[in-house]
């Protein structure tokens, strides 16, 4: 191996603390891929390995890799004005135009945006704004945030507390107070929780339209309609976390559109720039924004240095232009159909595949020991499948939280039929290999 590759691997192990990583294993094995290049749905590393990015990296590279026009727009904005403060009365054109554009494409009357650098900040912002809203409304005890099992809302303190996946909360022994959890698919559980706690103590309910990191769980058809009714009935804000589901991923602009309801606030990040810059935010309804304007007396004491970052906002505008021009939302729907059909075919061929599901290009394959009883293997197979698939040229991800044994797959929205077939071939070969090992 080239010396400089070895050197990079050693430097990585010595100096680079990897996010969300099995630290011992990472130290032993070193970096599996040091990516140097991306093109469409493909990533290439410095050893020349080419893999399909079956996860759009972290569910975010919606328009695919290596788009020169994104580099051009970033360069142009950076050369003019990369960044300036948006605190108080300062502003910049890309931030203004992006906020206006988001108002145009967001569901219903969501019309005002608070910008952040990513999804975790967006979630913490939403919770703080929701709590502050009730203080302004003269109901200061409405502070609790209800969230769901199997949910993921980021790793800042608020997002960690809101995350239903327990290992994230148990990472430390002290998290943010005033969060509570209900079953992810039961609107009745939400109603019961509200009754139990008292609606006068509850600020908001937060939910991902389709749960991502928790294993791609798609809510029953009526679920969010019922949630909307319950939140209205008890005067509780309904917040959707569209960090993954926003900007076309599920075949609609935003995931909640599948359910025909409009939240009071909406978190977004990832697909807003397709990963070409770091950006997220929270939108609120015009009605809520009007109330903020009317009832606020002091300063809105919440703001990040990079709230409204000019370069990031101009990159987002270009990204949305591409999504619309290339009709990537319709494409996500169509290719999502192809992907799900591919999953079903794999399921017929491989006995270790249990339930398969997808909404747009957000899909999951469950691994089981027995297709009928749904019994799973004592040691989860999904992580092995992930490693084996990567060797064959496909990056996917495993979810083993809450006794799951699931593969999640979410390729860029630009994926074509041939590339979907390539993904399925690699998956099929991988399943065959793992089946041979497990069943003989
Ligand atoms: N919410 C959801 C639904 C997410 O999927 C994520 C990231 N996977 C986050 C919040 C956190 O976003 P970030 O990693 O940009 O802070």
Automatic annotation (TrEMBL):
Listed EC numbers: 2.6.1.77
Gene Ontology molecular function terms on file: pyridoxal phosphate binding; taurine-pyruvate aminotransferase activity
Family annotation (InterPro entries): Aminotrans_3, Aminotrans_3_PPA_site, PyrdxlP-dep_Trfase, PyrdxlP-dep_Trfase_major, PyrdxlP-dep_Trfase_small
Protein's UniProt keywords contain Transferase: yes
Keywords of the record: Aminotransferase, Pyridoxal phosphate, Pyruvate, Transferase
One Pfam family from the record: Aminotran_3
Xref: PROSITE patterns: AA_TRANSFER_CLASS_3
Superkingdom of the source species: Bacteria
Protein family according to the UniProt entry: Belongs to the class-III pyridoxal-phosphate-dependent aminotransferase family.
Protein name, UniProt field: Taurine--pyruvate aminotransferase
Naturally occurring in which organism (per UniProt): Halalkalibacter krulwichiae
Lineage of origin: Bacteria, Bacillati, Bacillota, Bacilli, Bacillales
């Amino acid at each position: 191996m080239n010396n400089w590759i070895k050197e990079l691997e050693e430097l990585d192990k010595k100096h680079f603390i990897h996010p969300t990583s099995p630290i011992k294993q990472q130290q032993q094995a070193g970096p599996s891929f040091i990516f140097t290049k991306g093109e469409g749905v493909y990533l290439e590393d410095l050893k020349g390995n080419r893999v399909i990015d079956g996860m759009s990296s972290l569910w975010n590279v919606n328009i695919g890799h290596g788009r020169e026009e994104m580099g051009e727009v970033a360069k142009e904005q950076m050369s003019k004005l990369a960044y300036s403060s948006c605190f108080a009365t300062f502003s910049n054109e890309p931030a203004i135009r992006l906020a206006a554009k988001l108002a145009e494409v967001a569901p219903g009357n969501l019309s005002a945006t608070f910008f952040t650098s990513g999804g975790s900040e967006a979630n913490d912002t939403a919770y703080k704004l929701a709590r502050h809203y009730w203080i302004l409304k003269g109901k200061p005890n409405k502070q609790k945030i209800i969230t769901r099992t199997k949910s993921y809302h980021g790793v800042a303190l608020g997002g960690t507390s809101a995350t239903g996946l327990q290992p994230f909360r148990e990472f430390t022994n002290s998290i943010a107070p005033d969060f509570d959890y209900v079953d992810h698919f039961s609107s009745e559980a939400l109603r019961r929780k509200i009754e139990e706690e008292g609606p006068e103590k509850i600020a908001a309910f937060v939910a991902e339209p389709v749960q991502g990191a928790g294993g791609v769980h798609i809510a029953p058809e009526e679920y969010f309609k019922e949630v909307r009714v319950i939140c209205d009935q008890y005067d509780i804000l309904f917040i959707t976390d569209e960090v993954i589901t926003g900007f076309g991923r599920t075949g609609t602009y935003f995931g909640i559109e599948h359910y025909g309801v409009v939240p009071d606030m909406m978190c977004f990040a990832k697909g807003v720039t397709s990963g070409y810059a770091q950006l997220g935010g929270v939108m609120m309804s015009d009605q809520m924004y009007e109330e903020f304007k009317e009832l606020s007396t002091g300063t809105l004491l919440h703001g990040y240095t990079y709230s409204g970052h000019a370069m990031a906002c101009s990159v987002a505008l270009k990204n949305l232009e591409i999504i619309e021009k290339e009709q990537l939302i319709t494409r996500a729907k169509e290719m999502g159909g192809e992907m799900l059909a591919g999953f079903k075919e794999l399921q017929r061929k491989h006995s270790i595949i249990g339930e398969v599901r997808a909404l747009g290009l957000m899909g999951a394959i469950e691994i089981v020991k027995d297709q009928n009883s749904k019994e799973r293997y004592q040691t989860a197979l999904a992580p092995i499948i992930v490693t084996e698939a990567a060797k064959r040229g496909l990056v996917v991800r495993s979810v083993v939280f809450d006794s799951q044994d699931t593969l999640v797959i979410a390729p860029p929205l630009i994926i074509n039929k041939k590339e979907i077939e390539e993904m399925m071939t690699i998956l099929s070969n991988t399943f065959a290999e793992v089946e041979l090992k497990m069943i003989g």
